[in-house]
Amino acid sequence: KLSKRLEAVAKFIPSGATIADIGSDHAYLPCYLVHKGIVLHAIAGEVVKGPYESAVKQVQKEGLAAKITVRLADGLAAIEPTDHVDTVAIAGMGGPLIVAILEKHPEKLQGVTRLILQPNIHAKVIREWALAHNWAILDEEILEEDDKIYEIVVLQRGQMELSDAEILVGPRLSQRQSPTFIKKWQREKENWQRVLHAIEEAEQTPEIEEKRAELTALIHLVEGV
Ligand code: SAM
């Protein structure tokens, strides 16, 4: 059974898509998608040998070797033109690593029309990357599993405008104001306030002053959403 997190990622894969799951680990996501008949073909990419071997094993065990190609490759290098990949999923990593993967082989995204990105932390950098590279937010999701809160950002090609607050918290998520969304930003705000109180006692240096300004700005931003 797929985790609640990966199940939420799977919901954004269009039926009939040709997908590349980058950083696939056990290839659970592509196996699930093929079993459900959502996709016919998938690529599972892994850069680390151990997880790559786990993916190969899992695909063989499930009898899906004809439909899922597992490749040992760095990020988008797992995608070949003859794959005709139109959808890329990158899940379970930090936002900055996801962005680094997207930026390293941009030519591999030529035929790709949808990106489903699930950063464990710092979703903000993904929205910044999208803004700068002509991708627009199609949808977003936020969910909690095992006491961790995860965000999913779904992108399609196009332009968008986002405020600073929307870049931080997500435009769709802030429109919806789900209990998980409120919980996440309440938590973050309390953390920032804790740090702010702690540094109020600290010596006044330019660095501390900068940190104080940054935290105050962040608190203001989330109070406005
Ligand atoms: N995507 C799965 C999920 O969401 O459950 C696995 C997440 S796992 C925490 C992250 C995986 O990404 C690891 O198996 C790691 O080896 C792989 N990874 C990290 N950097 C990568 C890169 N540049 N290219 C391909 N895979 C990468």
How would you describe what is shown here?
Keywords: Methyltransferase, Transferase. This protein folds into 2 domains: 4-161, Rossmann fold, CATH 3.40.50; 183-223. Helix 1 (4-10) packs across helix 2, helix 4 (95-104) packs parallel to helix 5 and helix 8 (179-200) runs antiparallel to helix 9. The protein is 44% helix and 22% strand. It has a 7-stranded mixed sheet, sandwiched between helices. It has 225 residues and is of the alpha/beta class. The relative contact order is 0.11. It is elongated. The structure holds S-adenosylmethionine. S-adenosylmethionine binds next to strand 2 and strand 4. S-adenosylmethionine binds at residues 6, 22-25, 45-48, 51, 74-75, 91-93, 101.
